[in-house]
Design goal:
Layout: E1 6-7, H1 39-43, H2 54-61, H3 63-87, E2 98-99, H4 125-134, H5 137-148, H6 159-192, E3 195-200, E4 203-208, E5 217-220, E6 229-235, E7 241-245, E8 256-259, H7 262-266, E9 287-288, E10 293-294, E11 299-305, H8 311-314, H9 325-352, H10 358-368, H11 376-393, E12 402-403, E13 415-421, H12 422-426, E14 440-446, E15 451-452, H13 457-467, H14 482-491, H15 494-512, E16 517-520, H16 532-537, E17 544-547, H17 551-563, E18 566-570, E19 574-578, E20 584-593, E21 601-608, E22 614-620, H18 622-625, H19 635-644, E23 647-657, H20 659-673, H21 679-690, E24 695-704, H22 710-719, E25 723-727, H23 732-741, E26 751-753, H24 760-771, E27 777-781, H25 782-791, H26 793-801, E28 805-809, H27 813-826, E29 830-835, H28 841-846, E30 849-853, H29 860-864, E31 867-869, H30 874-914, H31 925-932, H32 937-941, H33 951-956, H34 961-965, H35 972-996, H36 1004-1023, H37 1029-1048, H38 1056-1059, H39 1072-1099, H40 1103-1108
Parallel strand pairs: 13-25, 13-29, 25-28, 26-27, 27-28, 29-30, 30-31
Antiparallel strand pairs: 1-2, 3-4, 3-5, 5-11, 6-9, 6-11, 7-8, 7-10, 12-31, 14-15, 14-24, 16-17, 18-19, 19-20, 20-21, 21-22, 22-23, 23-24
Helix pairs in contact: 4-6, 5-6, 6-31, 9-10, 9-30, 11-30, 13-15, 14-15, 15-17, 19-23, 20-21, 24-25, 25-26, 30-35, 30-36, 35-36, 35-39, 36-37, 36-39
Length: 1109
């Protein structure tokens, strides 16, 4: 290869999508025109122009409050964004010249080709981890309290009392982060150390992936990862193209076809420098992206982008750190406890009369009551979440489920909105051993005057067999050429011959217009090179598989194979079809126009080898093809009919070209492709000049098969009070049909189809019309949705949230994520997004809880999700059973841990008030550490095994899920109940110990602490709803540990400085007086709660207990 050939660079343009909310000039009077939110207002049309919009009134009413409470956050955020933009300016993007094989000639500096997924380095690890921990109020609070113990005047007890729990939490966190960092480092090192072959002037050399530079010529073998973004120069495949696997880049499992640059593919092995320069335009099909894998042959490419400038790195977005609603609620309760702690300390100092250094005493009381906010709260909750994740992954009823985000399992029990793509609710599912697949089945072929369904496909087969498969374009068939076809029309029945000819033309067009490539796996050679000549001779169905970028394409080609016209071979320049008689028809590919989301169609120009005729075939969506084909009166109607049946429609057309027409088109097309500026627009304009007055051949309908368990699963979720929104890119009629067939919309439910709107006035009128409907499902297109959100965001979301189901069709991935964020902003409810494709990733990451399905569309969605499942039906058990248990258990565990801290703080307050409000600790440091660990930790943590309803009952009565979304298991009401219980029990324990043991005052610590431990063990038993054998073991193990400590650690049971070192007498705890008095105190503290619980369950039982009984 010459070292002077300059390749035009591939420019990467970064743009940020912005939404501007502006009004129409034509409808300026709509500024004062509100949406009518009541029936009376709707009847009065004049009131529209005299009332302010509802949203605008709300904005004015909240103005001052918003400025005081939220405005400062917005201002601070804007200032921080400005600073970040100033400090971190993006590198200016500009064109680059790449010298093939001579990277040293480049004057620019490019980043190293290294993969780095580590969060920290050696210097930032400790500061980074500490910042992530202490940005939470709970940990920061304990850090301040622990640091205060270094001040002698503020020291309350031993340092380990405060630093041991905090150190334990930080150590566990740092060890976990360190393990993750080491794993990331090893993975990165393994990837960066992979060896590749580089072509140089001295021959081939081996280089590491991290040493590859821009301009290097790299050889990539079959099944080897592509190390950097490259231009595809040459391949060992005789076709001049190769397949790559992009599942690690975009999650798609279908192979992608890449084409080598034509001029470099044709070059001989040795080229002299004196050869003329080569000028050729590059397209997306000539690129090989980093992190993809070569699936066929060996390729040679020139590196154009390395390291952080590669496409895979630039497209990587950092997912937001999701925090569960339960964690936010507990954080608010923690702040409330802190306020209560400060108030209690102020009361203590006030009762002292603010004597002496009262400010120091105030801080000592704050430290003394610090156990009111237990640091073990976060430890227990984190361990509990890990346990929930383990239970989910070990559930045999939902095999293959993976918990990727272990911090939000409780969110599964709080969901109100479920946003799903159509493919998740409408695809065919298989057994867990074979991953989820999307099966497309050809159902309908419509020719305008006649329609063929699954039961009449044999007629098409007979037509193809009788004509030989040429379809009017082959000299070997009965209707070989147009002239022969015309001569036969007069000889036989005119209608029959006409239908036969049209069928053959339609089937041939479907067999030719696609991007499918037949692959013969069994013919792969030892060195990875396919013997194309040998494969051309072997057309066995057993050895042939089809590869395409879309399952729809494969479904169409397989249908033509069943009809008798089989695609047996394809390369860059030709494709071959086999007729039912075994004859091979060869067509030369002149041009291909791939499908894009903008054009919504694809085309191909072929030249038939036998006749030399040139034909343009095109297929696409009806909205794109309606203006291209010749006038007809049936296309729109039949498209609507097929869409109502739930079929994906494609319009197929053709146009015959003369040699002069094609030569003129080719020259203009090649000139447009060589343009440097506005190349895409110029190419599209040239292609559109050819797409005029095309002959309409047929309309096809492909079915996306429904899964058997989708309907009961959606019905289960709807009965659970979950509102389901279906967001799809399909047309409106198809989405509506899928919603009905999958029972997303019940049979007796009305559907309101939102009319297409393009202006503010139209949106206003249509929203008012929709407001009059009650309890009906909404179907709206993406374009209309964008108009409504531009002018009436608040009103639209409020109306849509009242619908039992919403279907958004023609939605882009960006719109899907935008809808999720709108629901989060305008409602206080939790959202869940479920998807299985790369286009669902943004929606999954934006939702409070993201669920990915591993399927045929790839693993990108499942890897980006918080939870990964293998079948859509598993979501029912995931939410109804595991979501319920996780939320209920975490709520009980969190409140019990706070109760454990509040009760001992109450005892401390009573103790200090009895001794002249002295800031002296009641229990020594070891007892405080033991109280939160070995004495009560195992019984309290065993609450993660508790369940109020059996899994079968939760699935049988999904209505129980509605109570969870109300958040009644953890609220200020339940929190206040636990506060009252803690105050009552703490007062009884301390006053009882002082009252009954007045003569043995030195034993008050052992007496009160023993009663405290027994009370906590009994309270765990009171909280448990379903006993597990591990709960019983935890209760007795903790009791045994405490009794052993009484015998062997009696020196810790004095009353600190007041007792002057008094020790516990072993004989004292064995006396009957000690036993019955401790039992009496414990009974007084616990028995009333047991009685209240019994009476409540008898006269006001919860809904789940009624079902259990």
């Amino acid at each position: 290869l010459p070292d002077v050939v300059q390749l035009r660079p591939v420019r990467t343009v970064h743009c940020t999508e912005k939404f501007y909310f502006i009004g129409d000039d034509e409808a300026s009077n709509l500024d004062e025109m509100p949406l009518m939110m009541s029936e009376e207002a709707f009847e009065s049309a004049e009131s529209d122009y005299h009332t302010l919009p509802r949203a605008r009134v709300g904005q004015r009413q909240r103005g001052l409050c918003w400025l005081l409470f939220c405005g400062w956050k917005v201002l601070c955020g804007c200032c921080c964004d400005c600073l970040l933009r100033t400090c971190r300016k993006r590198k200016e993007l500009k064109a680059r010249t790449v010298w093939l094989g001579c990277p040293e000639k480049s004057e620019e500096k490019h980043p190293r080709n290294i993969i780095k997924n580590q969060k920290y380095n050696v210097f930032t690890f400790v500061p980074g981890v500490l910042y992530q921990q202490f940005k939470f109020f709970l940990n920061l609070y304990f850090l301040v309290v622990a640091c205060s113990q270094f001040v002698p005047s503020l020291k309350i007890g031993f340092l380990y009392t405060y630093w041991a729990p905090l150190g334990f939490v930080l150590t566990v966190t740092m060890m976990r982060e360190a393990v993750d960092e080491v794993r990331r480092y090893k993975r990165d090192k393994e990837m960066n150390s992979q060896l590749y072959t580089k072509l140089t002037m001295r021959g081939k050399v081996q280089v590491k992936s991290s040493e590859i530079q821009v301009g290097d010529l790299i050889i990539v073998e079959k099944n080897q990862r592509i190390p950097a973004d490259m231009i595809f120069l040459r391949t060992t495949e005789k076709t001049g193209a190769c397949f790559i696997r992009t599942d690690q880049l975009d999650g798609e499992t279908d192979w992608k076809l890449k084409v080598a640059v034509a001029c470099t593919q044709r070059l001989p092995a040795i080229v002299e420098d004196s050869d003329p320069h080569v000028h050729e335009s590059l397209s997306i099909e000539n690129t090989l992206w980093a992190s993809t894998v070569v699936a066929s042959g060996t390729v040679i490419g020139v590196v154009i982008y390395t390291g952080k400038e590669t496409r895979s790195v630039l497209n990587t977005s950092n997912a937001k750190n999701k925090v569960g609603l339960l964690d936010l609620e507990l954080n608010r309760l923690t702040k409330a406890l802190f306020v209560a702690q400060v108030v209690l300390s102020v009361v203590m100092v006030a009762l002292q009369g603010f004597l002496g250094p009262w400010f120091r005493n105030l801080f000592r009381f704050v430290v003394l009551f610090s156990y009111i906010i237990p640091i073990s709260l976060r430890v227990n909750l984190d361990m509990g979440k890990s346990a929930y994740g383990w239970m989910i992954m070990k559930d045999e009823n939902i095999p293959g489920t993976v918990v990727r985000t272990s911090t939000i399992p409780e969110e599964l029990g709080r969901l109100v909105y479920l946003l799903t793509d159509k493919t998740e609710s409408a695809k065919e599912q298989y057994s867990p051993s074979t991953l989820t697949q999307n099966e497309m089945v050809f159902r309908r072929l419509h020719l305008g005057t006649v329609s063929y369904g699954t039961d009449t496909m044999d007629e098409i087969q007979s037509h193809i067999s009788n004509s030989g498969g040429g379809g009017g374009g082959s000299t070997t068939s009965s209707t070989a050429t147009p002239s022969q076809g015309k001569s036969q029309h007069s000889a036989g029945p005119k209608v029959r011959k006409s239908v036969s000819s049209r069928i053959n033309e339609a089937v041939k067009a479907i067999a030719l217009c696609h991007n499918v490539t037949p692959v013969y796996e069994s013919r792969a050679g030892i060195n990875g090179e396919t013997d194309a000549a040998e494969a051309d001779q072997d057309f066995s169905d057993d050895n042939r598989t089809y590869q395409a970028s879309s399952p729809d394409e494969v479904a169409l080609v397989r249908w033509t194979e069943r009809m008798g016209l089989t695609l047996v071979s394809r390369d860059l320049t030709s494709l071959q079809l086999k007729t039912p008689s075994g004859q091979i028809l060869t067509y030369f590919i002149l041009q291909i126009f791939p499908f894009t989301s903008e054009s919504k169609r694809m085309g191909i120009i072929v030249r038939e080898e036998a006749t030399g005729s040139i034909t343009l075939y095109m297929k696409g969506a009806d909205v794109a093809m309606a203006s291209i084909v010749q006038y007809n009166d049936w296309l729109e109607e039949e498209c609507g009919n097929m869409a109502r049946e739930g079929l994906r429609t494609l319009v197929v057309a053709k146009k015959s070209l003369s040699e002069e027409q094609y030569q003129d088109f080719e020259s203009r097309y090649n000139q447009a492709k060589l343009s440097i500026h506005d190349r895409t627009l110029k190419v599209a304009a040239v292609v559109e000049s050819l797409e005029r007055e095309m002959e309409l051949l047929c309309l096809t309908g492909v079915e996306d098969k429904l899964q058997a368990d989708v309907r009961p699963t959606l019905e289960l979720l709807r009965n659970a009070g979950i509102k389901i929104w279906m967001l799809t890119g399909d047309k409106l009629e198809t989405a509506t049909c899928i919603a009905k067939s999958s029972h997303l919309v019940s049979r007796n439910q009305d559907i309101h189809v939102f009319k297409p709107v393009s202006s503010r006035g139209e949106a206003h009128l249509e929203l008012n019309a929709f407001r009059r409907k009650h309890e009906c499902a909404l179907v709206i297109s993406g374009d209309s949705l964008e108009v409504c959100l531009r002018y009436y965001e608040h009103e639209f979301v409020e109306l849509a949230c009242q619908c039992p189901a919403v279907v958004c069709c023609r939605c882009s991935p960006t719109q899907k994520a935008q809808i999720v964020r709108l629901l989060q902003q305008h409602t206080s409810n939790r959202t869940c997004a479920i998807g299985d494709g790369g286009n669902d990733v943004s929606m999954i990451q934006a939702a409070d809880c993201g669920i990915g399905i591993e399927g045929k569309e790839g693993k990108q969605a499942s890897l980006a999700a918080d939870f990964s499942i293998t079948q859509f039906k598993h979501i029912g058990r995931l939410l109804m059973v595991h979501g319920r248990n996780s939320y209920k258990r975490s709520a009980a565990l969190g409140q019990f841990v706070m109760h454990r801290g509040m009760i001992i703080s109450t005892m401390q307050a009573v103790f200090s008030s009895m001794f002249y409000f002295a800031s002296v600790p009641l229990y020594q440091g070891f007892l405080m550490v033991g109280y939160a660990t070995v004495y009560t930790m195992f019984p309290v943590f065993s609450l993660v095994l508790d369940q109020d309803v059996k899994p079968e009952m939760a699935l049988l009565y999904p209505e129980l899920y509605k109570d969870l979304t109300k958040g009644r298991s953890l609220s200020f009401k339940t929190f206040l109940i636990w506060v009252l219980i803690s105050v009552y029990q703490g007062g009884i324990l301390m006053y009882g110990a002082l009252l009954l043991f007045e003569s043995e005052f030195v034993h008050v610590v052992a007496i009160s602490f023993t009663a405290l431990i027994l009370t906590e063990l009994l309270m765990v038993a009171l909280t448990v709803r379903t006993w597990h054998w591990l709960m019983v073991v935890a209760e007795f193990f903790s009791l045994a540990c405490y009794l052993a400590s009484l015998a062997f650690l009696n020196e810790y049971f004095g009353i600190g400085r007041v007792s002057l070192g008094a020790f516990l007498d072993l004989g004292f705890i064995t006396t009957k007086a000690f036993l019955w008095k401790v039992s009496a105190i414990t009974m007084v503290s616990c028995l009333p709660l047991y009685i209240i619980k019994y009476l409540k369950r008898k006269f006001s039982p919860p809904s789940y207990s009624k079902l259990s009984s």
